[in-house]
Design a protein that fits this description.
This is YueH family protein. By secondary structure, the chain is an alpha+beta fold. It has 2 helices and 4 strands. Strands 1-2-3-4 form a 4-stranded antiparallel β-sheet, covered by helices on one side. It is globular and about 35 Å long.
């Protein structure tokens, strides 16, 4: 599991990234906004980013912040 730190709403928050290589999936959790999601390696590009934005928008984040966070999560998971 990787733990990344980022800023949301002027607060430093932790983002937990779990990679299951055997099942080729990721589980992402952001306790600060009570949000989590899982997705497979096959999900990629704009489709995944749109799914992340949509899901994050239903948490306590506005659409602009959700889009920024989705981009960060996408980048972090592609680095792993």
């Amino acid at each position: 599991m990787k733990i990344r730190k980022t800023y949301l709403q002027d607060e430093e928050v932790k983002v937990f990234i779990y990679e299951n290589k055997k099942e080729e999936t990721f589980v992402i959790a952001v306790p600060f906004v009570e949000w989590s999601i899982s997705f497979t390696y096959d999900e990629a590009g704009e489709t995944l980013i749109e799914r992340l934005i949509s899901s994050l928008s239903h948490s306590r984040l506005n659409s602009e912040t959700a889009a920024e966070m989705a981009q960060r999560i996408y980048q972090w998971t592609r680095e792993m």
